[in-house]
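Why do we bother with holo predictions? Because pocket geometry can differ from the apo form. Keep that in mind while you read this record for cobalt (II) ion.
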Amino acid sequence: MDIEYLGVDHLGLAVKDLAAAEATYRNILGFKLSGSESLPDRGLEVRFVETGNARIELIAPTRDDSEVSRFLDKRGEGLHHICLQVASIDRAIAQLRAQGAQLLSDEAQSGAEGSRVVFIHPKGTHGVLMELVEKQAEEES
Ligand code: CO
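The structure, written out:
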């Protein structure tokens, strides 16, 4: 059984100042804002910017004890995670677990827009936090 990967969904960047980072990506790099989200229980504020098929998630902490505050303290601003889209998150989790990968949760967690996500610890990926996402099927309109 192989994991069916569908490509890179986004790159996550940890930033200190969300408004400043958004302004840089929009005004200097020419990206467009495509979404924003508050995750109060994780102490995070998120903006998605994109251009072509490149999508970047800018992530800033809203309090000092969030996971991203600790990341910024230790490593400074920069690449926080890589997110790959998979066809089935449950199959991916079963496969990864069978191979001994270290996942940050036992089951898929709910993500943005009805998606389901799981994270793989950077110790098991040679240094980068890996997010896997299964997108909700798009509704017929
Ligand atoms: Co992400």
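The longest strand covers residues 5-14.
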